[in-house]
């Protein structure tokens, strides 16, 4: 999706991972070598499979707990009777956790950034120019060095005249200096306002003015965006920018404007080093971050996150990922302004792991901005841990399957056979597919795929949206790593539920993290009750140490979504609908805001229908829409360029551009038939299948304001932009 670095991902990057890795297997081993391995691999498992395997007893992962005064089913993590608040004694704030971890791991690698060797431009056949980067090895700073830089930056900021009782904002792509500035601000108990680099002007102005930010910290790319809106920013006094080779060459960077003074980040560090200021440290109830969500409706809301919230989530996740520690290497490329990435990096800091920074456009050897012959970030870093949103993993799966289908013949037969046997092994129905056979397939088929992410991934963290069971299994097999599917919100600092490493089930988000309780409350209007059988169902409500202080400057919304019980525990009402499995694991099955009623009283879950329809190969994105005065639904569909254009070529359809193709009746009919097919396969009711569709030629990106940074649909914005198209579908 898109080529902007402001996006949370770049789809084409991930599609190439498995496509090219899969084909290289046949170049390396040849057909005869693979056939020989197949024979050996099948004979040995035939003997092993004769061994009787008893069914394991279900492991209890979450247990009910009585909470006075609370209606509904309340569940806690089975491994922790008391809620976890801190990773170790004394680490009650991010400032104390950072200082203690830096001292403990002073000589270990902490933050890594790749050296830029050269920057070239390639001209395409249509005349467009594309930037290509030659990147070198990672250059590392130790925990001790990063701590010194953070302290220097904090002192420099005070010396510049920043009022420590005012807020500072970070408006930048993910990079090492983002983290250094973030931790430095806490040395003076300065609340940090985080803003997506992809946020539009109106939302940016709203966020900065509402929080009365006096110092804005940004990268060179965002620095250029400030001039046109400077007259609308009323409280900013200082702008500090992260340097790169572009700003170092740019003599047009003005040091002073009518509204503010501009300083390079390194200059502030030097100023602080020469003029150290005694730290002014926070307490656990102080507001650490006001995080502006990209928001699916209207202007973004600022969530007030305390220091206690951050350390509680970090401490809880530390108990879930096995062997997490200084030997781990984490690849950071998602936006740090998103709660998922910020929480993940907070966990890595707590564990003493190394964090190597990359980007969606330089992630692999075949990424858009990587110069041919240069290693991508993953190949160079060889991470053991990384995060992904479901949209990334869905594209990995689609990329592999499309390439397998295109290749055909023996490679297709081999891949499908191997995949089915590995799937049977994971699901426990084929013992022989473990052991020797697994090793053979890993070496001969899957090793090349895994090498595109460095070949060392041992655990993946997935969050931001529901992950389909098929995709989860696919990644388990092709990438050879368990996926910890997490569930949380900005309002809970990502801390709610997390799949445990040894849980091989799919479609669930695990038990509550040990920093919180999760309860279900009946929603009678929607038909979800805690008395439902065989599993209790209801609205997901989260309480405990990770629950934030509410929305900045929005008491009404805070009172609506947050409640405090008679015991003083704070609860957040998510609006999500879930159910608890017998082992205490949560499954998210619906969302209150996504459930709408048709004219004749039938309810449609928009999210459920969209999840089914997007499995069509023709679909890149889809939004289902319901007019309550009609008895059917309609849909806006963003088609996959590659798939629909290939179909058009084979069908002999003539068109001058993609927009014209999307308007052709033949294309609409072809895609609608595909949607009906996948809808029936997903067992949707007839009224849940869109009766009419409109094809939208342009992709929906965070930059367009039509999806969030985590790629969730912004329904109100989509409905407003395509108002006329939706009305015509009901005519």
UniProtKB/TrEMBL annotation:
Q: Which InterPro entries match?
A: AMP-binding_CS (IPR020845), AMP-dep_synth/lig_dom (IPR000873), ANL_N_sf (IPR042099)
User: Pathway it belongs to?
Assistant: Phytoalexin biosynthesis; 3,4',5-trihydroxystilbene biosynthesis; 3,4',5-trihydroxystilbene from trans-4-coumarate: step 1/2
Question: SUPFAM superfamilies per the record?
Answer: Acetyl-CoA synthetase-like
Recorded GO MF terms: long-chain fatty acid-CoA ligase activity
A Gene Ontology biological process noted in the UniProt record is: phenylpropanoid metabolic process
Q: Where, by residue number, does the polypeptide cross the bilayer?
A: 29-53
Keywords, comma-separated and alphabetical: Membrane, Phenylpropanoid metabolism, Transmembrane, Transmembrane helix
Where is each AMP-dependent synthetase/ligase domain found?
A: 132-552
A Pfam family annotated for this UniProt entry: AMP-binding
| Name of the featured protein | AMP-dependent synthetase/ligase domain-containing protein
Give the lineage.
Eukaryota, Viridiplantae, Streptophyta, Embryophyta, Tracheophyta
